[in-house]
Amino acid sequence: MEDLVYWIIVSVMVFGMLYYENNGTFRWFAVLGAGIGMSVYRWLLGRFLVEWLSRFLLWLKHLLGRFFRWILTPWRAAGNFCRKKVNVYRRRLRRRGRTLKKRLTVQLRLFKIEMRTRCRKVEQEQEYGQKKNRHQKEKTE
């Protein structure tokens, strides 16, 4: 599929170049010559050139990989060292966060209990005050 897309794109580009270079005149011998040239290349040189170029690029990739691995080794070691230190501090912070959450949860529960008891006392005092007021009104009547 990639070959078909490639050849369609190349054909359009070659057609455009020939049309532009020949001042709008399309010459079939130029198209025929390009087609024959592509066919001869494919049958004679294509396989060998692609194989040789693939090997060369793989060798170059291997060589560059080794070079960059050699260059980046100190940075990788420093990164590993820093990552370990960061993980230690992250674990400590996580533990402290959990402990703090537990303490705050306990404090919140105690606060809620205290607020409930205070609200009850206030309600009881209000009820007592209302009863007292009623009692005094009854006495005055």
Number of strands: 0
Supply the number of helical segments.
Answer: 2
> Which consecutive residue ranges, at least 5 long each, have pLDDT under 50?
none
Chain oligomer state: single chain
Helix content: over 70%
Biggest beta sheet attributes? none
Query: How large is the radius of gyration?
Result: 44 Å
What's the order of the H and E elements? HH
The mean pLDDT is 85
**Shape designation:** elongated
Structural class: mainly alpha
Report the span from N to C terminus. Answer: 106 Å
Question: What portion of residues belong to β-strands?
Answer: under 5%
How would you summarize this macromolecular structure in one to three sentences?
The protein is mostly helical and 141 residues long.
From the structure above, extract its key features.
elongated, mainly alpha, 2 helices, 141 residues
Outline the structure in words.
The protein has a domain at about 1-100. It has helices spanning about 1-20, 30-140. It is built from 2 helices and no strands. The protein is elongated, with a radius of gyration of 44 Å.
Describe the SSE topology.
Layout: H1 2-21, H2 28-140
